[in-house]
Amino acid sequence: MRRLVELMPVFAALMLHAVAHGRWLLCAPVMVGLAWAVLKDVRIDYTPARLLLAGAVGLGVGAAMLWVSEPPTAPFPPSIFGPLCGALVGLAVLCGLGGNRYFAWTYACLLVALSMRVREMQGVGWVLGALVLSVLGVAFLEGGLPRTGLRAAAGFGVFVVLMSGLSLLLVRTIWASEGALMDAVYRMTSGTGTGGGSEFQSEVDIRAVVRLPRGSERPLLVLSGKAPARLRARVFDEFDGSRWTTSKALAETRLELPSGGTEAERLLAMTVLAPVGPWLPAPAGTRAVVGLRPEVQGGWVLKARELEGNTLALRMGAEELLPPEAARGDSLTALPEALEAELRPLAEALTRGAGTPREMARALEAYFHEHFEYSLNVDLRGEGQPLTVLVREKRAAYCTYFASAMAALLRTLDVPARVVGGFAPEERNPLTGATLVRERDAHAWVEVYLADEGRFVAFDPTPWRSRDETLGLSREQRGFLDNLTGAVGTWLRKMGAGLRYQPLALARTVVGSPVFAVLVAGGVLWRLRRSRWQGRTKARRTVALGTKDVRLAALYARYLKTLKRRAGLVPRPSETDDELLSRLRAARGDAVADLAAEFLAHYREARYRGEPGDTAIWGALVERLDARLRDTAAVTSSPGRAGRESPG
Questions:
Q1: Residues 90, 92, 96, CA angle at the centre, nearest 5°?
Q2: Rounded to whole angstroms, how far apart are CA atoms 513 and 99?
């Protein structure tokens, strides 16, 4: 009963966390298991290695809960908050079962502080009050405060007040830190900040002044095979001078992917790590998506849902070319009159000497490559429309603006052009051949209709050299260790995406693989060998303890372990029980030694005379011995009390 009360702070913290965040699936089994362990008097030796193991297990369980229950509410991303609370639960439980109640209470207070983040929860005050009262109740029930006097009681009270105050301070700090700091942490860790990727969800705005944050490092896709130059996601064919959108006619058009025919094909495997919206990024020339029938909209845009966690196989042509199609009338050359009047003279000057749409597009593409710099800070204030200022004064901008300007210039020359949004994969790992696509790889370019080919062809006006410098990207070859680390990280991301979004499909894939069969067979063989080894070890241990009674041998081993852990006494070679008892008496006094002698008397009667006994009583003796050794250690280590023994 005393141990149950001793762990009440841990139970209170688990209860609060479960109520505040609805994490009963995590906390309820832990509370039931902890209560069972206390009632069965299960004890765990506290070691740094086991502490790390408990934290790691809690971390993993907390992360796994994110896929099977609702994510907790917190100022941190759930991917951080969930595993952190799981680690605190594991640490508190280990310390509680290991007898380190102060550490257990500390972890419980931290868990309470994080759980109280939910402001809407009613009655958190009484939960924290119960936590403090349970700590005080443990002290009085153990009898340590009455025996050690008012001074020690006051000191312990100060400790409790400090821990409670620190918990409340942490709560207030977390609440007060919401805002810019927590938003920055959330964006850095979860990669959900504003960036280039969000530009192409529904429309593209052209404004005079923009301060665009650097795109996040959040991984979105993993490509296996030869990565394409671009992945198309959206097509914008309507421009009102400040905004690119998808026309109603194009959105309502439905197409069929072309068949392969006799041309060569190649496969591209794509694993979707995170939500990318209803649009499937795919290279030009995609002919089929194995295992999926996407809706093909006008502009050869693929639409599908619930892509997260799936690995898709894309069949595509040898070259990244869109299928032939008819030109869509005058809509792809339409511009506002004011903008057309400003851009036409510039377009004619820049394409002087170009006789075909292809030559005009190449001339404009080269112009942007050679005379412009890439920047996420755009300022196009000046005389005329923003795109006019950009082209005329060679202002710095980013891909959306360069693509918009080039498409608008071509339209003034009656060349059909549109803006396309998607991704430009760059991060290829030479060890695995896989390419990681991140949010920062979001990109925009131009597609020009060439009548001689009867199809739209991609042109990219973005100055890539300055783009890499601005985004902090390096073209240098990475070392072997960096590539190996990247390969492991990519594999873990794919497994994590499968566990989170498609757990059943991942389970079928894993169970059906030959590697799984080999691992299962190896595990069975290892278990058989371990069972045989444990049987031999158990037999040797029984012989060493001098008895075949398993319960008696376990109690004696627990007695020796208590002496070692609490008093630092280990039996010497050929040392008898009485000689070890004499050393205990000299080190800790008669009161402790008498308890040990009483246990040994019962042990000898059962061992040598074969008389049955109540092992519960003997276990209680060992428990009392353990408590008395702790008390004497605390008293002898207190200032001014060295050498004095606590009254029996």
A1: 120
A2: 44
